[in-house]
Amino acid sequence: MNEKPAVDIPASLAEALRGAKHVAVLTGAGVSAESGLPTFRDPMTGLWAKYRPEDLATPEAFARDPRLVWEWYEWRRGLVSAARPNPGHLALAEMERRLPRLSLFTQNVDGLHQRAGSRNVVELHGNITRSKCFDQEHAAESWPETGDVPPRCARCGSPLRPDVVWFGEALPASALAAAWDAAESCDLFFSIGTSGMVQPAASLSHQAQSRGATVAIINPDVSNFVSRSQILIQGPSGRVLPALLEKAWPASRTTHEG
User: Fold this and answer.
1) What is the pLDDT of residues 136-165, one digit of tens each?
2) Does residue 138 share a domain with residue 121?
């Protein structure tokens, strides 16, 4: 079996991590892709191959065909349920245990960071395992078994939808405010597994850098990142983050999910 080449971790980044008082982390779809979850850039498969994700993840699509959108999200929930945290998720949870403060902001909706053991997680785009009603946004943990697809809200009768941020919708104000506060107060900022092109989250690294923080970009494709003042590491987070932990704390080992 061919061994994968060692990840080259800059000593300056390991030192910055080891001495950091507050680390802010932004994660994107690339982190979950390593757990087998497709990104929005991947073609859909099976029954859903004829659809584009962008055509299903909008309020207009739900208003037009709520059953179709609900059933697509049920399919995605099945994928999420079967997925497991990967070494990148586990390394971030271990990092949180070792640092005075770590703020983790994710664009992912799968809850894998929490399942890996991360505690201070802010979900910028919601969570696919939760539901709320379309009209009033009432949170719904259960609903009457009437056979309706999608189910109806027990409080107002509105059809239920996944509690995620769709295209054209604003991010939760409290989550975005917390992300900006962290970007302005951290001394080390990581952008991991995200294209760096989706606003407003994409501006967080620039805000952190403008306040004097060290900024590290970890992604298999770093072609979109051109700032020479940022640390760029090309590779999957599942390999890079454990290697970074090992270099910062040589005796460390990430905890595996039981």
Assistant:
1) 999 999 888 889 999 999 999 999 999 999
2) no
Are residues 77 and 90 located together in one domain of the fold? no
**Global pTM?**
0.90
What is the Cα–Cα distance from 164 to 147, expressed in whole angstroms? Answer: 23
- Judged against a pLDDT cut of 50, whether residue 258 lies above it is answered with no
For 166-194, the pLDDT digits (tens) are 999 999 999 999 999 999 999 999 999 99
- E-assigned strand segments in the chain: 23-27, 102-106, 121-123, 126-133, 139-140, 160-164, 188-192, 214-219, 231-234
Active site residues: 125
pLDDT digits (tens, 9 = 90+) for 58-80: 999 999 999 999 999 999 999 99
Q: Could you say which of 144, 164, 184 is where a domain stops?
A: 164
> 129, 111 in Cβ contact below 8 A?
yes
Same domain, 238 and 182: yes
- Cα 73 to Cα 161: distance, rounded to the nearest angstrom: 9
Q: Per the structure, how many domains does the chain have?
A: 2
Q: How far apart are CA 49 and CA 75, in angstroms?
A: 13
Query: What letter represents residue 92's amino acid?
Result: L
Collapse the DSSP code of 135 into the 3-class scheme (helix H, G, I; strand E, B; otherwise coil) and give the result. Answer: coil
As a whole number of angstroms, the distance between CA 237 and CA 243 comes to 9
Sign of the CA dihedral with 232 first, then 235, 241, and 247 last = negative
Coil, strand or helix: which one is 160? strand
